[in-house]
Amino acid sequence: MNPTFREAVDHICKSIQNSLPETNGKDMAKTVKKIVKSDQVFVYGAGRSGLVGRTFAMRMMQLGLRSFFIGETITPAVRDNDCVVFVSKTGETQTAIQAAKVVYERTEADIIVLTGSPESTLAGYADILMHLKIPRSEKDSTLAPLGTIFEDAAMIFLDGLVAVLLEELGESEDEMKDRHPIMV
Known about the structure:
By secondary structure, the protein is of the alpha/beta class. It is built from seven helices and five strands.
């Protein structure tokens, strides 16, 4: 096996493992409650954070929740009894800030922000702030460039949240399979 590959995987996994214990359990419980009680759940992120967000929106749909990714042509408008989950490492992505501002100013929807930057502009719009504390390392630039560790940690964090939602909703994997697009 290529030694750089092994070193990169080890570095990424250790960094993610160190970032996840920093999340607040009370905020996790609030997030689950808000998602479950919402009429619709929207997700937004740009770039790779957006790809992570899309996978979360897909899993929520498979859990039987009305979920959408902001920016798709068939996404409805956010309404008062909805919630919006934003995924952004820096919390300074202009499209995310613009979307959060519109939701904040025009609706009573709950805003949940998953970020690596708790002091960011986007975090300022959050009703619930989920902070992934991603340690910066000199190795990141060669083994996990750009936002790799945040994006991978966000994916694992949201997949863990799916397991909690699965339990909270009383759903099963078989029920999720029935909603999977492949099953059409």
